[in-house]
Amino acid sequence: MMINSRNLCGLGKVTNEIPSLYFHYKKRIQPIRVRTVWDCFGHSGTGIVEFNRDWNGLNDALLSKKAYQEDGHGKKDWLSGGGAADSSLYAWLANTDDYYRAANYIGEYLGKMGDLKSISRFAEEEARKDHKLVVRLNVISENIQSRLRMLEEKFSKTSIKLKCETEEKYKILHGYNQGGLNPIAM
Fold first, then answer.
1. What pTM, to 2 d.p., does this model score?
2. What is each CA distance from 123 to 54, 118, 119, 128, in whole angstroms?
3. Three-state SS string across 130-156, please?
4. Cα separation, 81 vs 68, whole angstroms
5. Is 92 exposed, middle or buried (0-12, 13-18, 19+ CB in 10 A)?
6. How many CB atoms lie within 10 A of CB 138?
7. One pLDDT digit (tens) per residue for the chain, 186 residues
8. Domain positions in the chain
9. What CATH fold (topology level) applies to the domain 2-117?
10. DSSP alpha helices (H): ranges in the chain?
11. Interior CA angle at 184 toward 179 and 186, to 5°?
């Protein structure tokens, strides 16, 4: 998501107002980082807001986009000249226009720092990650099951051996107690 304002610079450097204004303005969203964009003349007045790279992050970005559009602070409002008149924050989701403008510092920055994906591509990547996780968990589960079977066999053999030795000991003691027989001769 990109944020723009005409009044975000102070004495050639960015003030700390970008994150605080952004979070104060829309408290229901949870961005993970706000990056300021600089060009050859200094701060451009533009910031890039990053969200988590999961479904929750996408939801936060879409909620934010909708809220800014409803308030008249979306991309269309910025481009129509509304941003020139005031110092409010304007925000929109970066799209192919923002990424692939050849002579635009914002496009260059987004190309270096971000990754433009369609929702279907994002869903495919998530499904692929989920599949890899399921395969790894299945392998771990099979290894644990194999180890469990091996331990059960070992327990069974040891239990049988212990039972035989206990019966033999009982016979020896019973024979000794019965008649004073030599336990070794049995």
1. 0.58
2. 10, 9, 6, 9
3. HHHHHHHHHHHHHHHHHHHHHHHHHHH
4. 16
5. buried
6. 10
7. 556 554 443 323 344 444 444 544 455 667 787 877 777 777 767 778 888 888 888 888 888 888 888 888 888 887 787 655 566 777 788 877 777 764 577 777 777 776 777 888 888 999 999 999 999 999 999 999 999 999 999 999 999 999 999 999 999 888 888 876 555 555
8. 2-117, 118-175
9. Alpha-Beta Plaits (3.30.70)
10. 17-25, 55-70, 75-79, 82-85, 96-99, 105-113, 119-179
11. 65
Which tokens go with 151? Answer: 């331990």
Residues present in the chain in total: 186
Contact 48, 34 (CB under 8 A): yes
Residue type at position 45: G
User: Angle at CA 68, nearest 5°, toward 64 and 74?
Assistant: 120
Give the closest residue to 26 by CA, choosing from 59, 55, 62, 67: 67
